[in-house]
Amino acid sequence: MEMPTDNFRADKKIAGPPMTAAGFLSMVRERLSAAGIEEAAAESWILLEWIFGLDRASYYMDPQFVLPEEKMKEAEEVLLKRERRVPLQYLMGICEFMGLTFHVDERVLIPRQDTECLVELALSIMEHEKKEREPGRKPQVLDLCTGSGCIGISIGKLFKGSEITLSDISGDALSVAGMNAENLGVAVDQVRSDLFDELGGSFDYILSNPPYIPSAVIDTLMPEVRDHEPRPALDGKEDGLAFYRRIVHEAKEHLYPGGWLLLEIGMDQGMSLLDLLEKEGYIQTGIKKDLAGLDRIAVGRKK
Ligand code: GLN
Fold first, then answer.
1. Ligand 1 close to Cβ of residue 145 (< 6 A)
2. Longest Cα pair distance anywhere in the chain, in angstroms?
3. Residue 16: pLDDT band by 50, 70, 90 thresholds?
4. For atom 8 of ligand 1, which residue has the closest CA?
5. What is the separation of C-alpha 285 from the centre of its chain, rounded to a whole number of angstroms?
6. Could you tell me if 192 and 186 are in contact, meaning their C-beta atoms sit under 8 angstroms apart?
7. How far is 68 from 20, CA to CA, in rounded Å?
8. What's the 111 CA to ligand 1 centre distance in angstroms?
9. With respect to CATH, is domain 94-301 assigned 3.40.50.10490?
10. pLDDT tens per residue across span 245-282
11. With b meaning 16 or more CB within 10 Å and e meaning fewer, what string describes 113-129?
């Protein structure tokens, strides 16, 4: 009888026994929980569907379905990265925002659901002001610190006839934003600029979700954010307010009379922002809460 060679044994070991869909789900759940990931169960379903194309309905028809061996290597690579706490959105390369699919990678912050509040508020003000606008005059919108472009591109997509400028200090972020604008069929102007430094012209709406986390707090955040999202997109310097001070001051030069400044803020920054906006002479200032009831948007209007 022919004896198995060492080679044969080595191959066997790499390939491992056939993996069923049910086996995959429990293996992923276990490994991700051990890595400290809270949503391990939900993520196991997402990975099963993304890597193997098996949604829940197909899974329940045959939980013992044997997964194709040729995909197991890819699955293992993804899992290893996720165990190292690379955010799922970066691994998949996409993130949903305002019902639209944005490409994301480590060059940009992952769009958050909280930021949808900013977009929704902007859309409702724009809609409200539609009647007052001179016929044919298109609302000019600036998304400052655009990152993936999620704010400006969503407005461009959802408010017909708006003219969108996307700006960021990072050329890498602008590449991602440009790709997203193209994929979603939204025409945008792009300006690489440190806040307003390179921006000419005036706008009716200036929207921004600038970096606002105090530097010292960043190291206490979850590893996905702390180790993988771009630090310059998070870091609001010592007290977290550095960018707001500049934006609130400089935006006045770039807003038309009656133009609006809408800023996403951290839940404990509402009072500081109201103070800043009022000191700089903005009117109709206010703070809007997010769905969780936390302060999330600061608003002011140029006289
Ligand atoms: N505007 C982008 C967002 O809201 C990026 C914000 C940032 O990088 N601070 O997700």
1. yes
2. 93
3. low
4. 233
5. 26
6. no
7. 9
8. 7
9. no
10. 999 999 999 999 999 999 999 999 999 999 999 999 99
11. ebbbbbbebbbebbeee
Of the candidates 300, 293, 299, 238, the one whose C-alpha atom is nearest the C-alpha of residue 267 is 293
Q: Which residues have a Cβ under 8 Å from the Cβ of 173 and sit 6 or more positions away? A: 107, 108, 146, 147, 148, 230, 233
Q: Which residues contact 295 (CB under 8 A, 6 or more apart)?
A: 265, 267, 268, 269, 270, 287, 288, 289
C-alpha 149 to ligand 1 mean position (Å): 8
Instruction: Say if ligand 1 is within 6 A of residue 209 CB.
Output: yes
- Indicate if the pLDDT at residue 9 is higher than 80: no
Looking at 194-280, list the stretches that DSSP marks H as alpha helix, in order from N- to C-terminal side.
215-218, 223, 242-251, 270-279
* pTM beyond cutoff 0.90: yes
- Ligand 1 atom nearest the C-alpha of 264 is 4
Query: Hey, where are the domains in the chain?
Result: 21-84, 94-301
Q: Is the CB of 236 under 6 A from ligand 1?
A: no
Residue 282 has a CB neighbour count (10 Å cut-off) of 22
| Ramachandran region, residue 207 (left: φ > 0; alpha: ψ -120 to 50; beta: rest) | beta
| pLDDT recorded at residue 134 | 86
Task: Give dist(CA 202, CA 185) in Å, integer.
Answer: 24
What does the pLDDT read at residue 15?
55
Interval between CA 231 and ligand 1 midpoint (Å): 12
Q: Are 243 and 195 in contact (CB under 8 A)?
A: yes
Residue 156 Cβ contacting ligand 1 at under 6 Å = no
pLDDT digits (tens, 9 = 90+) for 90-124: 999 999 999 999 999 999 999 999 999 999 999 99
- Cα separation, 233 vs 210, in Å, equals 7
273 Cα: distance to centroid of ligand 1 (angstroms)? 18
287-299: average pLDDT? 96
CA of 299 to the centre of ligand 1 (A): 17
